[in-house]
Write a structure and sequence with these properties.
Layout (H helix, E strand, L loop, with lengths): L1 H11 L2 H33 L9 H41 L7 E3 L6 E3 L14
């Protein structure tokens, strides 16, 4: 049982699992914000549109609710896409700033084998290197 708990702890503490947990919590909170925007601003506008004659508010009300849900989804997807794109861009900037590691090997121009960068003679073909 202790081994199982230890393995679970190692799994849960990996960066990807923690990132996913944070994303779920932030996504839920962000969903509430978008829901509030739709309910406060967009639904009153859609409900003020002319209704069908003879009290057809049931169908129109359903359409308004559906349209609100679709708008909420599209806004959430659009903003999360922008956030992910910005995060990926910052990750790419960090990678470009790192200097390239100095090479530790070179190729012999005669036998094309890999040799140490400081070598003056190829250990494979015994050619002298410049």
């Amino acid at each position: 049982m202790k081994k199982l708990l230890k393995e679970f702890k190692e799994f849960a503490m990996k960066g990807n699992v923690l990132d996913l947990a944070i994303a779920v919590v932030l996504g839920g909170a962000f969903g509430k914000v978008v829901t509030a925007v739709v309910e406060i601003f967009l639904n009153p506008i859609m409900e003020s549109l002319p209704k069908m004659e003879n009290g057809g508010t049931g169908f129109v009300g359903s359409l308004v609710s559906f349209a609100g849900i679709v708008v909420e989804f599209l806004l959430t997807a659009l903003i999360l896409f922008a956030i992910v794109k910005a995060v990926n861009k910052t990750k790419n900037l960090k990678k470009k700033d790192e200097p390239a590691a100095a090479p530790t090997t070179k190729k012999c121009p005669f036998c094309m084998s890999e040799i140490d960068i400081k070598a003056t003679r190829c250990p494979h073909c015994t050619s002298e290197l410049k």
